[in-house]
Design goal:
The chain is of the alpha/beta class. It folds into three domains: 147 residues, 3-Layer(aba) Sandwich (Rossmann fold); 205 residues, Rossmann fold, CATH 3.40.50; 45 residues, Up-down Bundle (Single alpha-helices involved in coiled-coils or other helix-helix interfaces). It is 45% helix and 15% strand. It contains 17 helices and 14 strands. A six-stranded parallel β-sheet has the order 1-11-10-9-12-13, sandwiched between helices. A five-stranded parallel β-sheet has the order 6-5-4-7-8, sandwiched between helices. Strands 2-3-14 form a three-stranded antiparallel β-sheet, with no helix packed on it. Helix 16 packs antiparallel against helix 17. It is globular. The termini are far apart.
Length: 437
């Protein structure tokens, strides 16, 4: 069910590593058309597209506050408690990420610094098609709140009743989110990017979605900011002979159930472990509700890879640059220092990936498709801008102005040089306009 291979099976490894943020011509064309409709027709397009793709009429598009309150009241007490505790953990973790503005005196009355300024409006996309993810809402909204974003606007696909899933509504209410809209898909991304009568335009759009959502985010990037172009989920497990094969198998399946294009890869130089994991996977899958999805994902993008040495295993895992990386090894903290590329690292056999997905506190919105080589987990920094600040003095410009002008002239930007020289010439004269002696 999950193939056992060696690093020489480059076809399988290439297939796993090539699942990036690219889309079919059909998806691109559909998304282009949807975005154009939303940009020109606004709410009318949102309503018609929602009727076409979701089969419901969201009226009004914005969810009334009373419906948010009602969703909280209907929430199971145990689940409500778990959501609140998870939210507290996530908030506590992200509070550690906050950067402060700073300023420094550089002599001669010169002050240099950097301002950290939150965005005015953030748009959050929360999926609601084949599955519902209140955890994604926590992970997207809380960093924005910690950053100090003025307005947070949430879009999520409507269900048969014309409203987002009750769990999404209840979680939004628990987070005191007021702006919630019953719209999903590429049309929701277009509404957040361009604005309609019901949905204001935002500064950045974050959150996972299907291929149409991801393609829409890619197309509006530049007009607004985005977190990433998310691809299918993935897990990599680096293990040695000390690993528990049942734990490894269970964790591989925890990601394979997400999507038929999800990837689940074990890399270990210990062949008996790989074979034991295969056996456990074979035994576990039939009893799982999403067995069909898991079987397809493992058949296409799963692997138990057996290199000759742990050094080779580490090198291969760095090449994969996976979204979630678990270290089932005797010395996980030492091994972690050798990992260069991963979205999130889970150390030891009790740090199962779902612990990070739901509860521990670190963000579960992570780079996929090998982008962990250059991208990071969603965090507070995604919702702020930094502004460079400088206050120059007459004394410092007198000293450095000729050098600045020389650099400008070297780039053939004469007006830049003259902007500095105008001040130097003024400083060379006294108040009467005569040259200073």
């Amino acid at each position: 069910m999950i193939p056992l291979i060696t690093p020489d099976d480059t076809a399988r490894l290439d297939a796993i590593m090539s699942r990036g943020g690219t889309f079919s011509d059909e998806v691109d064309a559909t998304v282009e058309n949807i975005l154009g409709q939303v940009r020109t027709e606004g709410d009318e397009a949102l309503i018609e597209l929602t009727k076409t793709y979701d089969g419901v009429h969201p009226d009004p598009v914005k969810v009334p506050a009373s419906m948010l309150d009602g969703a909280v009241d209907a929430l199971d007490d145990d689940l409500k408690g778990a959501l609140k505790e998870a939210a507290a953990n996530i908030r506590r973790f992200h509070n550690k990420q906050v950067d402060e503005s700073w300023f420094t005196e550089d002599g001669d009355g010169v002050i240099l610094g950097q301002r950290v300024v939150p965005m005015d409006r953030a748009g959050l996309y929360v999926p609601g098609g084949t599955a519902f993810y209140p955890s994604s809402l926590l992970m997207n909204a809380i960093p924005a709140q910690v950053a100090g974003v003025n307005e947070i606007h949430l879009v999520s696909p409507p269900q048969d009743d014309g409203r987002p899933h009750p769990l999404v509504l209840a979680t939004a209410a628990l987070l005191n989110l007021e702006h919630v809209y019953a719209v999903g898909g590429a049309q929701a991304v277009g509404a957040l990017a361009y604005g309609t009568d019901s949905v204001p335009a935002v500064d950045t759009i974050v959150g996972p979605g299907n291929a149409y959502v991801a393609a829409a985010k890619k197309k509006v990037f530049g007009h607004v900011g985005i977190d990433s172009v998310a691809g299918p989920s993935e897990i990599g497990i680096l293990a040695d002979a000390t690993a528990d094969p049942e734990f490894v198998a269970a964790d591989l399946l925890s990601q394979a159930e997400h999507d038929e294009r999800a990837s689940a890869v074990l890399i270990t130089p210990h062949r008996p472990l790989a074979e034991a994991v295969q056996d456990h996977v074979e035994e576990m899958v039939p009893s799982l509700p999403r067995a069909d999805v898991i079987e397809q994902a493992l058949a296409d993008y799963g692997a138990c890879v057996v290199p000759d040495t742990m050094d080779a295993a580490v090198a291969l895992m760095n090449d994969l640059a996976v979204e979630h990386l678990e270290l089932h090894v005797a010395a996980p903290w030492d091994t972690m220092t050798r990992i260069r590329h991963a979205g999130a690292i889970f150390l030891g056999e009790y740090s199962s990936e779902p612990v990070g997905d739901y509860f521990a506190g670190p963000n579960h919105v992570l780079p996929t498709g090998g982008t962990a080589r250059h991208a990071s987990a969603l965090g507070v920094d995604d919702f702020v801008r930094t502004q460079s600040v400088l206050s120059y003095s007459k004394e410092r410009l007198d000293d450095t102005g000729p050098k600045i002008a020389a650099l400008a002239e070297a780039e053939d930007l004469q007006a830049h040089a003259e902007a500095v020289r105008a001040r130097l010439d003024r400083n060379d004269h006294d108040g009467s306009g005569s040259k200073k002696p």
